[in-house]
């Protein structure tokens, strides 16, 4: 998924088709045509594509430019379009189009609305006109990263831009809005103004991240996005530490404990999602159900299982709102799920109507508890049914699941040659596989095992993430040794500690 490559998909008739696309950042344009491929070494050049008349060909645009990230896409595509207001762009509206494989173009309506509003916002805030007469956004089935800010033709992984208001999980709505705003910010910071060399990359990404959230706060003030960012950082820190602690401590799931955590929220919010409910309330309901269910609340697990059966066996779509489906899949598999439940969720992945629901099912497969089904999930992750980019969804849940964490690491070691062959040309994905699949351990024995395994391996493609993983393991271990007794005493004093192993 780098250079000029083909992406495959299955159309509405069940036929396998392809589109040609590219991913040239950071230095892969040279895979498509001879060129210098660094920020400060740019030139104008002509690229000519000879394309069958029945296909659509897209490019940055036909203006001579030294701006970065030349792009071209060829495929059987359809589009929807919308204009910006042009109010802050010298009264010149910009034509914005969303392209996708035929039949899914309507799923870009939300992203298109965000894009037109964000372009107006950035033109007003930066007081610099958007210099192009058009901006295209394209959904690519096979795409290594979330999105790429190509000059005038932004490419996205399908799940990062497609949204069905009737069938998609609402949390994707916020994710899509931010990704679109972030990539549009790069049209000014990164494209119109380009870093001189790689050591300025932090400023390029950092500024786009910041102003991306500014745009979201302007367009969707009801989301209270800045408060959410604080919560995310806090939760990440707490989750990382509690995950280590839970290896040593089993928390008592008493009625008092559940009441403190989520019972009051569950009793007031329930399982239904009113049509005009605000975004934050909907997300709070999902969080409460998932937290209680994955922690082992028997009532929530029972209700989740009942709704799951109606959803999968009776095809009753109304019993599981899209916002809660992934949480229910995980709860069912964590608490009593067997072969039948595994197969039902696998069927959703294979036949789901939209990509985010397919990926919700794929993610849930990593929460199986039985060793036989954990192995089945591992084997499925490297099958031809899972796109290379999507392996991270199932790996993330396998790593979160303490029953599968060690089997996952052993699986990577056993299949190392396969991973190296498939992912060394997709460096970002390869780095994620290494870093996120090893750095949740906390023992010296694990460090020794990892260092021993990689001692005779060529690590030039992932030296930095490997070093980061080892550093995280050492940090986890040091923190555990330093504070475990204090945490045990605190939990015991408040009646939450059931057993120390």
Automatic annotation (TrEMBL):
All residue ranges annotated as the ERAP1-like C-terminal domain in the record: 253-474
Active site: 183
Any single GO CC term annotated in Swiss-Prot or TrEMBL for this entry: cytoplasm
Single GO BP term: peptide catabolic process
Note on cofactor: Binds 1 zinc ion per subunit.
Domain called Peptidase M1 membrane alanine aminopeptidase: residue spans: 110-247
Residue ranges constituting the Aminopeptidase N-like N-terminal domain according to the UniProt record: 1-68
The protein, known as: 10361_t:CDS:1
Gene source species: Ambispora leptoticha
